[in-house]
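Dear H.,

Thanks for agreeing to be a second pair of eyes. The structure we're designing against is below in token form, covering all 531 positions.
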């Protein structure tokens, strides 16, 4: 290659693009220097726009305009140091005929790793050929050797020896029977995903087409966030007050202040309690087995963030909500699984996990996280799993007493709203991801442990990511950092606890069997999972 074209997809929100531009610019300079070191010229495919104070592609419309000016055969490098909306560039990348390389900075700051993984998952679903790389400073041998190969016309490869097709794995008979039984029940009885507006933040990879979803026995109920907002406004104050009082009595802390522009206020929490009640009642009305609230667009301009709601819904022990006629408690004693950011892959995963864990007699709380970042600590690579901005309180050692609600950052959430923040308890987990590749639903499953790190290390990791959000310190068994990055087809990863290692291995086997019976192409990732 004599030259490559560099582009950068960004957020839709101007405030985010402006605040994150400096980090993006530094990353682009480092990537450009690395490419130029091999004698290859770098051309930026779109300019810095002074009026906007950033140089991102910030809409699908602008992305199409940019790609009209890029030769269809040009080698293309997509550099990401930020969270980005994949649909801004997806139309251009789908039709692009030249080689494509996605690159992210190894940093938890905004974060480019999460943005790149979402783009990779979207490209995989769209059946677009691409290569991918990441680096802390773009001078390491792992990055440079693979960059050199790509610039010479070769595809970038990563070690995938940790991946085994389930067809090669002998499952324990008792676990396999549980998985088969739950799959057959799902096929027979069916289930409903309540989708409050589809396609959050351009996450093409998170939309499961009906023709792939329905054969599993799961169907979508397409709902509107405007209906959720209307239902919120109809919730009486005394019912919302009762939810807040229940949380206070449980020992959950709310970090409040007087300024709604920058602080979490009691008024914001009150509206979140209304949303919680409204979401349960709508879900019950439509017979939903799980729901997903998009929030990030549309609802964010009307109401505080949905995060407090999401964490509560995913917990078995949560404020009781009665049906509108007062005749019964909704989803009593059970989570109503919520798939954050309307990630329908996580929604299907959440339904399956909930049923398998209940069948095994385990606590069924599960959630997704962003695969955010990670560093070595005392000889182990410890991932930062971190979601915006809530997990079920059962994932904390002290439950609600270990949870604090802090205001979502104003950069993303103008009207505020609280999170469910805490440190995930030590223990054994099963991780998973449902994704779409080659026109098929697939699932990767693996095992990990949640480590307990010193408080000062946890605080350091929070400060270099997002300190308002819950954090999980995860060590994946038999899967290295680069193996995970090279294989994973999403920004999200699903997690659920088991009582101990043997129980987690059994849960993994039962869940894998269930997915296989539902028609998914299943792989087991890692070596220390008892299979």
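And this is the sequence the design step returned. I haven't edited it by hand at all.
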């Amino acid at each position: 290659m004599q030259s490559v074209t560099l582009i950068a997809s960004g957020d839709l929100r101007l405030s985010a693009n402006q605040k994150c531009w400096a980090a993006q610019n530094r990353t682009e300079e480092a990537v450009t220097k690395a490419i130029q070191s091999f004698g290859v010229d770098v051309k930026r495919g779109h300019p810095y726009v002074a009026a906007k104070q950033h140089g991102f592609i910030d809409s699908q419309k602008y992305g199409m305009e940019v790609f009209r000016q890029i030769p269809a055969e040009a080698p293309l490098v997509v550099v990401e140091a930020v969270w980005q909306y994949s649909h801004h560039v997806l139309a251009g990348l789908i039709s692009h005929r030249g080689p494509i390389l996605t690159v992210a900075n190894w940093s938890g700051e905004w974060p480019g790793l999460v943005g790149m993984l979402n783009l990779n998952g979207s490209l995989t679903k769209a059946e677009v050929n691409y290569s991918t790389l990441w680096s802390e400073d773009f001078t390491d041998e792992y990055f440079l050797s693979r960059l050199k190969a790509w610039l010479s016309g070769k595809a970038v490869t990563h070690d995938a020896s940790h991946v085994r097709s389930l067809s090669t794995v002998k499952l324990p008979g008792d676990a396999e029977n549980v998985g088969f039984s739950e799959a057959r029940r799902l096929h027979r009885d069916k289930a409903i995903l309540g989708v409050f507006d589809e396609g959050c933040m351009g996450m093409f990879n998170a939309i499961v087409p009906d023709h792939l979803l329905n054969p599993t026995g799961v169907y979508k109920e397409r709902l509107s966030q405007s209906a959720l907002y209307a239902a919120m406004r109809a919730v009486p104050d005394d019912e919302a007050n009762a939810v807040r009082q229940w949380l206070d009595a449980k020992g959950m802390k709310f970090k409040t202040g007087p300024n709604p522009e920058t602080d979490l206020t009691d008024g914001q929490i009150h509206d979140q309690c209304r949303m919680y009640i409204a979401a349960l009642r709508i879900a019950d009305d439509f017979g939903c087995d799980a729901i997903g609230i998009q929030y990030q667009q549309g609802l964010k301009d009307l109401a505080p963030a949905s995060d407090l709601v999401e964490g509560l819904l995913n917990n078995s022990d949560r404020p009781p909500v009665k049906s509108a006629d007062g005749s019964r408690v909704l989803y009593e004693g059970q989570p109503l699984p919520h798939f954050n950011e309307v990630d329908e892959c996580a929604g299907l995963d959440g339904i399956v996990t909930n049923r398998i864990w209940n069948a095994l007699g385990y606590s069924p709380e599960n959630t997704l996280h962003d695969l955010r970042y990670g560093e070595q600590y005392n000889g182990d690579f410890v991932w930062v799993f971190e979601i915006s901005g809530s997990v079920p309180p059962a994932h904390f050692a002290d439950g609600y007493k270990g949870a604090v609600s802090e205001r979502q950052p104003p950069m993303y959430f103008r009207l505020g709203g609280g999170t469910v923040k805490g440190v995930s308890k030590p223990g054994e987990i099963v991780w998973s991801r449902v994704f779409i590749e080659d026109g098929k639903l697939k699932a990767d499953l693996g095992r990990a442990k949640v480590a307990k790190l010193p408080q000062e290390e946890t605080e350091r990791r929070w400060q270099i990511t997002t300190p308002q959000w819950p954090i999980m310190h995860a060590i994946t068994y038999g899967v290295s950092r680069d193996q995970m990055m090279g294989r994973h087809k999403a920004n999200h990863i699903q997690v659920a606890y088991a009582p101990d290692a043997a129980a987690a291995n059994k849960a993994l086997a039962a869940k894998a069997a269930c997915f296989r019976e539902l028609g998914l192409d299943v792989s087991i990732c890692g070596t220390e999972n008892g299979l």
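Two observations from my side: The chain has a mean pLDDT of 97. The longest helix spans residues 14-36.

Warmly,
E.
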